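Risk mitigation, structural track. In case the binding assays with NDP fail to produce interpretable data, a predicted complex structure has been prepared as a fallback.
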Amino acid sequence: MHAFADAIAAGASGEELANIPIPESYRSAHVLRSETGMFEGVESADKDPRKSLHVSDVPTPELAPDEVYVAVMASAINFNTVWTSIFEPLPTFGFLDRLGRESEWSARHAQDFHALGSDASGVVVRVGSAVRKWKPGDRVTIHCNSVDDQSPTSHDDSMLGDNQRIWGFETNYGGLADLALVKANQLMPKPKHLSWEEAACNALCNSTSYRMIVSKHAGDLKQDQAVLIWGATGGIGGYAVQYVLNGGGIPVGVVSSPERAELLHKMGCEHVINRKEAGYQFWKDEFHQDESEWRRLGKDIRGLIGRDVDMVFEHPGRQTFGASVFVTARGGKILTCAATSGYMIEYDNRHLWMKLKSIISSHFANYKEAWAANQLLCEGKIQPLLSRVYPLDEVGEATLAVHRNETEGKVGILCLAPEEGLGIDDPAFREEVGEDKITLFRSMG
Ligand code: NDP
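Fallback model:
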């Protein structure tokens, strides 16, 4: 893949890139089927991705007619990288095996390695015979919604497609690598004013938060609505704060340190709760919750904004869900896309039905939503949240840092890009948007 890296650095044309041979194998971060039992008996928090994530060559899969190869310049860690690397809640090989049974082309995914990664920026180097809108040389970012466009269920909201999958998590050949195999309908233009790593870190979290806050499929935010955002300087939380502010809403951000509180203020989020300082104990013990603690959170919110929140951006799951349902205003929405602290959820249903609240599930985003979220990045209206950057060889360290909640925003990974700061094609627009805004989260790295 170095020939591609050199050619891209030298400004090679699409035609020149198309003439460079695709190697038979390429460097990727992957887990191994033979190691899925390696953490048996180990507490979740002590499972170490440095032990399970390997960086070495895997064989290059054949290209299907509706796919492209992308030379990956940079990628990013997502929380699904953590899940795959600690084999929780299940090893991802089950996803690959199920996909492998679907068709002849799908069979390529069922391997004894799982090359993971659900974000990337890079350059298209080959297109399949059925690809119309993209060509070698195109500079792209990749969204992770992998859908079968021959299924009728994919043609209203493709997230409802009966075999919808997350690329690089439920499929093989993901973005934490020098080469990625993606469907043409996962491609989006790279924001020209961002570096490779700034461009690579957004698509998964940015699109998820766009759907949750903005889209009619979930939040459908209106002006002046207040939204409680858990993990407000985390991956999805940091984009959610931006969407609420852009949409004329009022974010109430929850974080766990004064540094993160300060970062939220710099983002323009006026109302901040430090959950560590407040010391909420929503669970008295493993089986019982404490409603007086829910009330205390509600009181703190009212103390800040003078009323209840219209929505809660919910993803911690078991530890917070009961409180989230309680503090939502009458008729409000609890938007849920995850359960980091546990997926067996408990809440008091009386507070839901008597006050006509709704729990709305959300998962990634369809192509139209991902494209809209990417367009806002291209226009400088949403900023990347890159806080740290690691080389691909240190993907285990990077994943461990996210697993331990030591990072803010997004963690980038350099793949073929030899150093940070490359790939900026429109420095004038970058200046217009503002270096301080684009790099705000780097101060935390
Ligand atoms: P990050 O680790 O970047 O951020 C999560 C934030 O949540 C942390 O910054 C932390 O903030 C907060 N947090 C963690 N544990 C708790 C807790 N017990 N109570 C309250 N807050 C907590 O992760 P992401 O934002 O990228 O992802 C969050 C979750 O969403 C993950 O489970 C991920 O798998 C899921 N996800 C789902 C998607 C989907 O499409 N369904 C897409 C993207 C992510 P602090 O400590 O400062 O409060």
